[in-house]
Design goal:
The chain crosses the membrane at residues 30-50, 62-82, 109-129, 141-169, 181-201, 236-257, 300-323, 329-355, 383-404, 410-433, 453-472, 484-504. The chain has 521 residues and is mainly alpha-helical. It has 2 domains: 21-275, no CATH class; 289-507, no CATH class. Helices cover 79% and strands 0% of the residues. It is globular and about 80 Å long.
């Protein structure tokens, strides 16, 4: 079986839906094109609404967006690699099938790269096209974006293969997932440390060492061209040639070390050895010893074994850091309140998603056993509140300290985070459980939380953003003038009463067992 035939075979067995008619295939492709155009023109109209000062520096914002997509590409490549190697339906068959290792390596390498290409094409390309239409970048930048997307996709596929191969050689297959994801997390945290804590991160990005500059040409040259924003067609051609050669070097290295790992037994790892963890055993013992609430214990054990924990926290922190280092929202008055509100909302929604994903996976089991949804709600809302409060407050306090924000604003921000996370944890979780009980005789979660998140965002989050912004303004007046007018004092009392009322209403969110009543929010 040659490479093309095997890749075609892989595509067929991984296709979720059976192949339709020619008309359906054409309609599917047209829908993809229309989606691409919709994203492009949506970004275009948003960019056109931005102040002229921001539009003039949009090429610099693209550098930050590119850095964020690099992290997303890395995460996507790792998840796809893990799925292809250890969760694919033909995993055991390949041990006896007449397929050469080289065909397996190349096909899986290509599948991982294609997955990353799709992600980058749907985000980076529309962003570049929209800014070109808005007159913020040149057409040459758009042209080099195409080979950049292809090259970085194959690069991250190569890096992922190298990381998993090294992880296998280190661990001998035991706890491979833990080792690989730990290496990936360490690299991503390193990026965050550079962006957040080092003022000279730009000099690290545009490094002057020729050896490193040539080695990482496919990652460093594109941001340089973005910053210049004025290149010639000859540069486009040279860039395409050099980036292709650079990519081939990484592909060759990834192929060699992966083939070596195959000889050492990478394909024969058992699921039991794969899931072992070097740290989860210790953490598990601590949880069993000190946590006595069964639902909290279950959720914590799920979290420490979940590779999704990486993307849940690292991605929003990195993206926020890229934007914050440029705009300094934390030290820009009332914009600190906006930053806190949005960041907290993102953290709590993604945390809720990962906690509920376990319920979605085991929905039938949870439906058949006599689960106490009241205790589930109490325990999980408490855990959700604590996790999101700690993560959001630690990160935002760190940012505020780095930007020398006054201590009064930091204390106000911590109080805001506490209230936001408490209200959100109870309202969101109560409505999710309510919807899961609505059309069944028990708890049956179908995995959908989008409608609940949208409801909370418009009904609760936006009003809270407005109220805390007003409170922040009154705090500023008190700190600067030492007093408030009578009208401002009355408004302050009213807004405080409303916030306290919303907080009190969230405490009344309750879950009733099926047959006792309805969920109240």
């Amino acid at each position: 079986m040659n490479f093309i035939n095997y890749l075609s075979f892989k595509y067929k067995i991984n296709r979720r839906n059976p192949k339709g008619s020619k008309k359906e295939t054409i309609a599917e492709r047209i829908a993809i094109i229309l989606l691409f155009l919709l994203i492009t023109f949506t970004i275009f109209f948003i960019v056109r609404l931005l102040p002229q000062g921001i539009q003039e520096n949009m090429n610099k914002y693209m550098v930050g967006f590119f850095a964020f997509l690099c992290l997303i590409s890395f995460s996507t490549a790792v998840k796809k690699y893990y799925k292809e190697y250890f969760l694919s339906p033909e995993r055991e068959i390949l041990l006896i099938a007449p397929v050469k290792n080289s065909q397996i390596i190349l096909s899986r390498f290509s599948i991982v790269a294609i997955e990353v290409i799709i992600i980058n094409t749907m985000f980076l390309m529309p962003f570049a096209m929209a800014n070109y239409l808005a007159g913020n970048i040149s057409k040459e930048i758009v042209l080099i974006t195409i080979p950049q997307i292809v090259a970085m996709s194959f690069f991250f596929s190569a890096i992922t293969h190298i990381i998993f191969a090294i992880a296998y050689l280190i661990s001998k297959g035991k706890g491979l997932k833990t080792v690989a994801y730990s290496l990936m997390t360490a690299a991503s945290v390193g990026v965050i440390v550079i962006i957040v804590f080092l003022q000279g991160y730009k000099s690290l990005l545009f490094i002057q060492d020729k050896l490193i500059e040539n080695l990482l040409y496919l990652l460093l040259q594109y941001p340089k061209y973005l910053m210049i924003n004025n290149i010639k067609f000859i540069d486009v051609g040279l860039f395409t040639i050099f980036i292709a050669l650079n990519t081939l070097c990484f592909i060759a290295a990834a192929y060699w070390i992966t083939a070596y790992s195959y000889k050492k037994g990478l394909l024969t790892i058992s699921s039991r050895d794969l899931e072992k963890s070097f740290y989860s055993l210790f953490v598990t013992n601590v949880i069993h010893k000190h946590i006595h609430t069964h639902f909290i214990k279950k959720d914590l054990l799920f979290l420490i074994r979940s590779p999704q924990l990486f993307s849940v926290y690292v991605s929003p922190i990195l993206f926020t850091s890229v934007i914050e280092i440029r705009n300094q929202f934390a030290s820009s008055g009332v914009l600190l309140t906006v930053l806190i509100n949005i960041f907290t909302f993102v953290i709590i929604t993604v945390t809720l998603h990962i906690l509920m994903s376990d319920d979605a996976t085991n929905s039938e089991l949870l439906f058949t056993i006599p689960i106490n949804t009241q205790e589930l709600f109490k325990s999980r809302s408490k855990l959700l509140h604590i996790l999101t409060f700690l993560n959001a407050s630690i990160y935002l306090v760190t940012v505020c300290l780095l930007e020398a924000v006054r201590i009064e604003y930091i204390v106000f921000g911590i109080l805001q985070i506490f209230i936001l996370t408490y209200i959100a944890s109870r309202i969101l979780l109560a409505r999710v459980i309510k919807r899961s009980q609505k059309n069944s005789s028990g708890y049956l979660f179908n995995g959908s939380i989008v409608r609940t998140i949208l409801y909370y965002f418009f009904v609760w989050n936006i009003p809270l953003l407005i109220f805390f912004s007003i409170l922040h303004e009154y705090l500023r007046r008190v700190l600067e003038t030492g007093s408030l007018s009578r009208h401002a004092t009355i408004m302050l009392i009213i807004i405080l009463a409303i916030v306290v009322g919303m907080l009190y209403k969230s405490t009344k969110s309750k879950i009733y067992q099926k047959g006792e009543g309805l969920c109240q929010t």
